[in-house]
C-alpha cells in the first residue's frame, strides 16, 4: 500500500508545474493546460484523503471537479477560438486592445 504522503507530494509537484505554466506562458492553450494541471492536482488530493480516511466523499468531489474541468475546457476553447479569429494569434498579451 502506498502511503498518502506520496500522493500529496505528487499533487504538490503537479500543482507547482501548473502554477509555473500559468505564470510564465503567454500562449492561451498552454495557459489552459496549466489550469487543468492544477485541477488535476486537487483531484489527486481529494482521492488521497479519501483513501486515507476510508470514505468515498473525496472521490465524489473529484468527479465533480472533473465535470467542472470539462465545462471550463469547453468555454476556454471557445474563448481561444475567438481570440485567434480576432488577432490571428493565441497570445493572451495581444488581447489588451479588447479593453474599453
UniProtKB/TrEMBL annotation:
**Annotated EC:** 1.6.5.9
Keyword Cytoplasm found: no
Establish whether keyword Zinc is in the entry.
Answer: no
Its subcellular locations are: Membrane
Q: What is its main location?
A: membrane
Q: Which InterPro entries match?
A: NADH_UbQ_OxRdtase_chain4L/K, NUOK/Mnh_C1-like
Bilayer topology reads:
Multi-pass membrane protein
GO cellular component annotations of the record = membrane
Write down the Pfam families for this protein, in alphabetical order. Oxidored_q2
What's this protein's family per the entry?
A: Belongs to the complex I subunit 4L family.
Record's PANTHER family? NADH-UBIQUINONE OXIDOREDUCTASE CHAIN 4L, NADH-UBIQUINONE OXIDOREDUCTASE SUBUNIT ND4L
Know the name of this protein? Answer: NADH-quinone oxidoreductase subunit NuoK
| Organism of provenance | Halobium salinum
Amino acid at each position: 500500500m502506498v502511503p498518502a504522503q506520496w500522493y500529496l507530494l505528487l499533487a504538490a509537484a503537479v500543482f507547482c508545474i501548473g502554477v509555473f505554466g500559468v505564470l510564465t506562458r503567454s500562449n492561451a492553450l498552454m495557459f489552459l493546460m496549466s489550469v487543468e494541471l492544477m485541477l488535476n492536482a486537487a483531484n489527486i488530493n481529494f482521492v488521497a484523503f479519501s483513501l486515507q480516511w476510508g470514505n468515498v466523499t473525496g472521490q465524489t468531489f473529484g468527479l465533480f471537479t472533473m465535470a467542472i474541468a470539462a465545462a471550463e475546457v469547453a468555454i476556454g476553447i471557445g474563448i481561444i477560438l475567438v481570440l485567434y479569429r480576432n488577432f490571428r494569434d493565441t497570445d493572451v498579451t495581444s488581447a489588451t486592445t479588447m479593453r474599453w
